[in-house]
From TrEMBL:
Domain ABC transmembrane type-1: 1-268
Gene Ontology biological process terms from the UniProt entry: peptide transport
Main location: membrane
Organism: Ancylobacter tetraedralis
Superkingdom to which the source organism belongs: Bacteria
UniProt name for this protein: Putative ATP-binding cassette transporter
A GO cellular component entry from the record: plasma membrane
A molecular-function term among this protein's GO annotations: ATPase-coupled lipid transmembrane transporter activity
Keyword line: ATP-binding, Membrane, Nucleotide-binding, Transmembrane, Transmembrane helix
A Pfam family the protein falls into: ABC_tran
Keyword Protein biosynthesis: no
Amino acid sequence: MASGLATAWLLASINEALHFELGTTPALLLGFAGLCLIAVAGEVASDLGNSYVGQQAVAALRTELTDRILSAPIDRIERFRTHRITAVLNHDVEVLSNFTFAFSSLAIALAVTLGGLAYLVILSPVMSLIAAIALALGMSVHMRARNRGRSGFDVARRLQDELQQHYRAISDGAKELRISRPRRRHMREVRLGGTIAGIRDQRIRAMRTYMSANAFGSILFFLVIGLLLALQFRFAIPAEVLSGFVLVLLYIKGPLQQLVGALPAIGQAQVALHNIAALEQAFANPEDGLLAPATSIPAMKRIELAGVTYGFPAEDGLSFHLGPIDLTLDAGEILFIVGENGSGKTTLVKLLLGLYEPRDGAIRLDEKDITAASRDDYRQLFSTVFADYFLFDEVIDSVDERDLARHLERLELTGKLAIREGRFTTTDLSTGQRKRLALLLAYLEQRPVVVFDEWAADQDPTFRRVFYTELLSELRAQGKTVVVISHDDRYFRSTDRLVLMKEGRIVEIRRGEEAIGIAERGDA
Ligand SMILES: Nc1ncnc2c1ncn2[C@@H]1O[C@H](COP(=O)(O)OP(=O)(O)OP(=O)(O)O)[C@@H](O)[C@H]1O
């Protein structure tokens, strides 16, 4: 602000010096030098301070957003969709980051403009009224352009979400696209082509609106200056006032255009802020302390699900309703959950793990109800290998070398990889081997309950047998409780209890040997 005001003051001094009868005096020169110094020093300080504060704010925003995602309810994350999260984290935060760099020069431009206008009012209130009317007209056109432009950027931003989705499809689905020419062409011409062209057209349209408003603003400027020149004799405008007006108007045209030129960036920053706010709001979580330091692993004797229900919201189709579910899980047992595809096995397990909050009913650990405050401690009971597991390459648990060697041998991974500086030396393994590595991580976590969702689905027959007949009972022998979602009816005899699910409900619970009956009847 100081820099901008000093610049406006400089204009006033120059105009004064032009009409000073005694010529330039030392005082005038000294004042001129002082104002130059303030203008330049203010600009430098403002730029430096701005980039520091701006980048601090952007770093804080990045941390805040990733914290939100780390603590968000899992069902909200699933509903929000990964590509939309990526678009907010990459695109929207970057737009804001870029905007912060422009901020100091915009503040200076604003101060120069305001200071210049203030000088005009001092020079001639009547003539500045004419200038003010022209300016107000220009502003109103710009405001309308801004609103239209912003809605264009809004549409373009929504298309950007789609683009992220297509980007994922062309990298994750590279193999499928390479095999199928029709799908590849459809992806290029229809999906990618349509979205890319849509973003281009929306942006061009938005920019065109801004540019037309800009041109109108320039014309207004010259009209006002022309009008003043034309009227100078009719209204006997003093030379000092006229030159002051022309000088200031010509000078502030630059900063004013800079301000107006920033409107598209401001429009995009507003859209970005709106998206960030939407993500923050969607991911608010009633659970506190999810980012607190790790505590010791809890113990369990019995977990009880009493009248637990859950429902997915019906967005495009029929909603799925689970429960009411009554089920207990005792320490040291092996429990199989079986049932047709879509019967609700994974959903039940997500409730058991405390990943979904039950709509009704209660989950109890050793007869104590799990609440929002205790849910994250409760989750620490479990190690998991989900059907759609994610393999982290970092090992954060302390590893006993002999233990590791034993596990690697057990999982037939000896010589394939090692742990160096807390990381697996490679995760470039076959599909089945990667899944064994996920199992190894679950082992290393040393939690009391281990949950496998269709773990054996991509294992060879020999290792599948090892898993069901040896590994599970080894885990039980170590005192662990094991929950297995399975379609392998040949191995249902490996369980202590078997839960059969159908259409979101438990329809049968069998003990030990009785489970074989289900397999033989082929009910599951
Ligand atoms: N994220 C989701 N949003 C909406 N509905 C979902 C979601 N996940 C699952 N569903 C619905 O819930 C039902 C149960 O899904 P779930 O994954 O629990 O089945 P499952 O028994 O584990 O099936 P599978 O054997 O195929 O793994 C499905 O029919 C599906 O329609």
